[in-house]
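Progress note, sequence design subtask.
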């Protein structure tokens, strides 16, 4: 763990609070994901067998939401060994040999994100942000009060 500074603590508070409302995909959402990607890795098109637990639910944005709209079907090699924290578009470019294939796979992933985006994410996100900033503001107030005691 890095040195515990006020900035680090605030980011940790933000992440911990966001994790409360972020939920893992439901079984029906996971089924939809398998169907949408045709039981193939979204990055390299390798065929995957669900019954053999070959599919991974890769996070498009590393450190981003657990929600289904930030997840794609991926093989273990792409998800675990190769992509890591890379930007998914850069990673996809590395995995494809020509521009046509790259554009097809990129469009398919982007269409997936749009398809499963929540109906009212903006209002909900604003409420989440308000609550998180309220907690961070309380932290700032306590920090300022404590600094006066030094
Ligand atoms: Zn793959």
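Output:
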């Amino acid at each position: 763990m890095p040195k515990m500074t006020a900035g680090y603590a605030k980011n940790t508070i933000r992440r911990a609070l966001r994790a409360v409302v972020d939920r893992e995909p439901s079984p029906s959402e996971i089924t939809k994901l398998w169907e949408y990607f045709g039981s193939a890795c979204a990055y390299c098109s390798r065929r995957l067998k669900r019954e053999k637990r070959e599919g991974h639910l890769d996070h498009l944005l590393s450190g981003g939401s657990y929600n289904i709209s930030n997840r794609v079907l991926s093989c273990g090699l792409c998800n675990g060994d190769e992509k890591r924290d890379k930007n998914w578009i850069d990673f996809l470019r590395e995995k494809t040999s020509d521009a046509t294939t790259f554009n097809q796979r990129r469009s398919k992933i982007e269409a997936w994100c749009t398809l499963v985006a929540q109906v009212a994410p903006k209002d909900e996100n604003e409420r989440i942000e308000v609550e998180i900033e309220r907690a961070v503001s309380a932290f700032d107030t306590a920090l300022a009060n404590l600094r006066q005691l030094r």
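Strands lie at 56-59, 71-74. Work on this subtask will continue into the next period as scheduled.
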